[in-house]
Amino acid sequence: MTPKQRILTAINKQEPDRVPVGEAYVDYPIIEHVIGHKTFYRSHARKRIALWEGRRDEVVDSQKRDLVEFIRRTEFDLLPVWRVPPRNQIVHQPKQIAPDTWEDRDGSILQFIPRTEEIMVVKQGDPAVKPIEQPPSDGSEWELWDHVVAELGDTHFLFASVGAALGVDYNPHAMEGRFERFEQWMVRIIDDPDSIAEQEVRGLQGFRETMRPLAERGIDAVRISPDYGHGLATYCSPQQFRRAFLPGLRRFCEEVHAAGLLVHFHCDANMAELTDQIVESGADIYQSIEPHEPIDRYKKEIGDHVTLWGGVSCGDLCTATPDQIRQQARFAIRHCAPGGGFILGSSHNLMIATQYDNFMAMLDVARSEGNYPINID
After folding, report:
1. Mind listing the pLDDT tens digit for each residue in 305-362?
2. Which segments within 22-153 are labelled E, that is strand?
3. So where are the chain's domains?
4. Does domain 3-23+156-369 have CATH number 2.30.30.140?
């Protein structure tokens, strides 16, 4: 079986030759450990600074080469593609005003955050300053996408993230004012959930026409990450979710399916009380299943309708022992793999602090104990 056939067989709730394995995203330390050299793939601040410095081609060439090499070395079955900055994009380099601190052209203050290696807006600038007027794209934003499709599109399952606004809608890269915006959003969920649903459904009208060119460009699925909550809970009750969010989520799935693509639904929340609505939405894959969520129960309750992707805590991949990771991977395979409908991976993505030995322990279990028929003794 090819990796793509393996994923499609699992999504069709049939048993492939072995349990599919993959990650939504992998931060650069694991990539570098596997391929043996530095990369700009998911390198956070390093990549952003390089783009400021006009090194766009160096960044994109690294991403093209290293993503394909990483997938082939790990034998992952699925991977993301994305558009990159076009060559003719005009880039403004912020002025460095202190170590790890910059001032943008609108007066925004940007700061390097060591823990996540991101550059965040810590103080908003003047909103009246207009963005730089960009020339019409020269088409090179598809450079990485088309390269990956040419190299792996026939053999691997490819997905791309899309930006349709479903769920909490505020800028996650701006610290200033985040809580005020979030408070306003929570009030709206309580006071006027129907307007949220109406707005989202209306905004997705004809979305299939936006998706068809992506399908023609070689991908198999689109990923949406509305994040209806965090960690232990969702932002609203099941009743409020049904009124505010289910209509838009259902319309999104309908539009994507009409374009000939599958839906990869990623959500940072404990969806235990909403699994029935995940099924109603029509999503094909549910990923970002938190460690405290009962993935084995999910398999019993919705496993005939939605493919589950996860099983190993992304936090524990950073802090636990290889033996503990093996136990988690083994549990997930034994409880979720029988009958198909399961992809092994982390509970979110492979973060900067992921330990290489833990990553390899997860892959080892997949390879040694993930062949069908699954041994459930």
Report:
1. 999 999 999 999 999 999 999 999 999 999 999 999 999 999 999 999 999 999 999 9
2. 78-80, 95-98, 101-103, 109-113, 118-123
3. 3-23+156-369, 93-131
4. no
